Amino acid sequence: MNTKIHIVDCEGILKIVQSHELKGPIVNNVGTLSFRHYEDDGDGYYNEQVPATIKETFLVITKGEFIRDYNDTSKLNAFNMSGGFGQINRLAYSYSVVVMNNPRRGGKVWKSDLIYSDAGIKETQFDMYSYHFNEPEQRYDEGRLDYEVFDSLNLTKIFSKYLNKSDIRDSKLEDLGI
Residues 95-152: pLDDT tens digits? Predict the structure, then answer.
């Protein structure tokens, strides 16, 4: 999965956003972000459109693939990982992550464009039966793994050198819902 991530300046605050979060046409690296503000009682809300200037753009490339037992000839031959006593088995998968500056040099990429990379093995977020299909044939669905890898990334930590300390703190508070 390839995802474009932007660091934008939104009213003096730097934010990390995905490209689909910028609304309207982007002219001279300026788009708009939509914020939903709730009333004190939680019933009503209103949307506010705020201009956002793109400061940096990055590509995030994620890949996940089930680890297969090739001694088993069945279609459902992925290894599983035990969560421990009393927990549901989850499937094992390998993952890789590459985060790089968005190349703007006419198709050339340099090794120095690499911002962050990671690879390893993990267990799936949900139990093994969430990935199991019987129809039209028995198989495991790997389609969600790329998204699971992306969702597990701490983008604030990865892009911390591009953010101010106050913006990092604010991002962590937003993650906590404060």
Answer: 999 999 987 767 788 898 999 999 999 999 888 888 888 888 888 888 899 999 999 9
Query: Is residue 31 classed as helix, strand or coil in its secondary structure?
Result: strand
Q: How far apart are CA 115 and CA 168, in angstroms?
A: 17
Residue 107 lies in a domain: yes
What counts of helices (H) and strands (E) characterise the chain?
A: 3, 10
Q: Report the domain count for the chain.
A: 1
Query: Is 103 contained in some domain?
Result: yes
| Peptide bond between residue 103 and the one before it cis (omega within 30 degrees of 0) | no
pTM, rounded to two decimals: 0.81
Using the 8-state DSSP alphabet, how is residue 136 labeled?
S
Buried b (16+ CB within 10 A) or exposed e, 96-131: ebbbbeeeeeeeeeeeebebeeeeeebbbeebbeeb
Instruction: Look at residue 65 and tell me whether its pLDDT is greater than 80.
Output: yes
